[in-house]
Amino acid sequence: MYANRDILPISLSSLLPQSLNDFDQHQPHEGRKSRSITSFKPASSIGLNWSRATKGDLPIMISRAAVAPPAHAIPYVSSRALTSAAAAFLPRLTSAQPAVKQSTAPQNQQQSQQLAQQQPQAQRRGFATVQDGAAAHPPRVYGGLKDQDRIFQNLYGRHPPDLKHAMKCGDWYKTKEIILKGHDWIISEIKTSGLRGRGGAGFPSGLKWSFMNFKDWDKDTKPRYLVVNADEGEPGTCKDREIMRKDPHKLIEGCLVSGRAMNATAAYIYIRGEFYEEATVLQKAINEAYAAGLIGKNACGSGYDFDVYIHRGMGAYICGEETALIESIEGKAGKPRLKPPFPAAVGLFGCPSTVTNVETVAVAPTICRRGGKWFAGFGRERNQGTKLFCISGHVNNPCTVEEEMSIPLRELIDRHCGGVRGGWDNLLAVIPGGSSTPVLPKHICDDQMMDFDALKDSQSGLGTAAVIVMDKSTDIVRAISRLSAFYRHESCGQCTPCREGSKWTLQMMERFERGQAREREIDMLQELTKQVEGHTICALGEAFAWPIQGLIRHFRPELEGRIRQNAQANGGKEVFAGGWAPNTRQEGKLIAPGQ
C-alpha cells in the first residue's frame, strides 16, 4: 500500500509487524504545512520525506527511525482528534517503553565522541540539516573566540564613535583594495564565510547579494540601491542600535563594501523614528566619511561612486518587512507588496534593490579583510561566524554581546549575564530569538545551542538572537497575551488572515489569561494559528502565531489549570465557548472579550 514503508501514518503503523524497539528517537513536527489526520494518502503520492503531518500538537507521521518519547513528552491531544487506530496506538507508545530518566550531558567533547562511537550507526540521527546517519553532535571546537576576534570592538562605547577612533580599531583599513577587487571577489568571500542574514530569516548573504548581478546587468541604465534595514522594532531586540550608536563607521564602510558587491549606486539606511540619538550619531559619521573622501565621488580613491543617505521612519513595526520598508521610503503607506516581482528586480523607485540588516552589512568589511575562512572558523557547519546576542529579562546583568555562533544558551547567560535571577533552577522559559519565535521551557534550554539549525530542531528559531529570559515568577500566559496585543496593534490590516486572525487570537488569549474559556478552545486557538500561518502577504502572520503555538506546545497544562481554577471559583459552572458564563448569560452581560 505504501511505497515507502519507513514513513507511515501513526494510525496504520500499529498494524504493522514491527516492535517499538525499532524506534530510536522521537522526531517532532515543524508545524508548517499541516495535514489533517482525516486525509491520509500514500507516502508516495504526497511526496513526504520525513515527519511533517500534524493535527494540533500530535505528531501524526513518525519515521520508523524515531524512538517513542517519554510519557511526559507526549503532547496533549483530545480523543476526538484521534482516529480509532491512533487512539489504540497511543497508550502502547507510552506504556511499552520503560520510564526514561533525564539524561546527563557528557562532561566534555571527548566523552561525547566516545558515546557517539559506541552507539550503533543505525541508531544515530543528526540534525534536521544533516543527513540521517551522521553523528548527533558533529565534532567542533568551541571556545576559540578571543577578544581580538570580535568584530565590534567598540560595542560598549569605550571610545568616541568618530572617524579617528574608528580607524584605530581597524575600520577603513585597505578598503580601497577591497573595492578594486570587484564584486565577484567580495561575493565569493561572503559565500566562503557562510554568513547568513542577521535580521532573522538567516538567508545566505552571498547568494542574496548575487541576485543583483543578473545577466546583462551592466547594460541596465537604471540606478541600483542597497537598502539597510535599521528599523529595529522586534520586542527584546537591541543590537542594531548599539552598532549605530557605538560603531557607526563599521556600518558606513559595510554599506560601501556590500554596495560594491551589488554594483549599487547608493545606500539608503532606513532607521526607526524613535532612534533619534542613533540617527544623529550616524549622520555625523556619514558627514565625516564624505569629508575624508571615503564615500561619495571616487570613494576611497577607487573610482567607484557611492552615496549614503539616512531615511527616518515613524516607528511602524510592519516597516521592518523589506517591501513595506521600500514603500515607506517612497512616501507611501508602509504595507508589504506582493511577490513577485522581488526587490532584486523591481525594488526601491522601481529599480533593482537589496534590503539587508545592519549587522549583516557591518561585518562584511572585516570578513573581506580577514578572509571568509577565518569567519567560517567559528560555529557549526551552516551556522558559521560570530553573532550579536541581546539578553534581557530575568538575568542579573542584561547586555548585548558578540559571541560565537552555536554557543550553548546556558553558557551564554552564565558567562555574560551573571546567570538567571535566583539561579538556573529558577528558570521557567526563554524566548530565544525575539518575540516572534516560540518559547522554550527550561528542560530544552538546559542543552540548547544558539544557532539557526539547533533552534529549528527545537521547534523555535534564532531570529534576531534577542534572548528574553523568564523566571518562575513570570505569568507565561499573560506574557504571550501581551505579545499578542503588540502584534494586533502593529498589523497593517492589508490581508484578512492577519487583520482578523490577530484580533481573534488576542481576544482568546485575554480570556485564557483570566481562565474564562473551555479546554477545547485551546485546540481552536491552535487551529486558528495554523490557518493564519503561511497565508499572509508578509511574515507578520507567523510572528503572532508562533509564540502562541509555543505556549500551547510546552505550557498547555498551565492553560488548562487556569481554566479549571476559574471554573471552581464560579461554583464549578462551565464557561460557554466564547466567554459566556451561565450566571451572566441570562442577564445578557458579555464577560469576554473586552469586559
TrEMBL record:
Source organism, top-level taxon: Eukaryota
Gene3D superfamilies referenced in this protein's UniProt entry, alphabetically: 3.10.20.600, NADH-ubiquinone oxidoreductase 51kDa subunit (3.40.50.11540), NADH-ubiquinone oxidoreductase 51kDa subunit, iron-sulphur binding domain (1.20.1440.230)
Task of the protein: Core subunit of the mitochondrial membrane respiratory chain NADH dehydrogenase (Complex I) which catalyzes electron transfer from NADH through the respiratory chain, using ubiquinone as an electron acceptor. Essential for the catalytic activity and assembly of complex I. Core subunit of the mitochondrial membrane respiratory chain NADH dehydrogenase (Complex I) that is believed to belong to the minimal assembly required for catalysis. Complex I functions in the transfer of electrons from NADH to the respiratory chain. The immediate electron acceptor for the enzyme is believed to be ubiquinone.
SMART domains in the record: NADH_4Fe-4S
Protein name: NADH dehydrogenase [ubiquinone] flavoprotein 1, mitochondrial
Membrane topology type: Peripheral membrane protein
CC annotations in GO: mitochondrial inner membrane
EC number: 7.1.1.2
Subunit annotation: Complex I is composed of about 40 different subunits. This is a component of the flavoprotein-sulfur (FP) fragment of the enzyme.
Annotated Low complexity bias: 102-123
Cofactor: [4Fe-4S] cluster; FMN
Residue segments, region Disordered: 98-128, 574-595
Places the protein is found: Mitochondrion inner membrane
Catalysed transformations (reactions): a ubiquinone + NADH + 5 H(+)(in) = a ubiquinol + NAD(+) + 4 H(+)(out)
Top class in the EC scheme: translocase
Keywords: 4Fe-4S, Electron transport, Flavoprotein, FMN, Iron, Iron-sulfur, Membrane, Metal-binding, Mitochondrion, Mitochondrion inner membrane, NAD, Respiratory chain, Transit peptide, Translocase, Transport
Short name of one Pfam family: NADH_4Fe-4S
Main location: mitochondrion
GO molecular function, one term: FMN binding
Chain ranges of the NADH-ubiquinone oxidoreductase 51kDa subunit iron-sulphur binding domain: 477-522
Family: Belongs to the complex I 51 kDa subunit family.
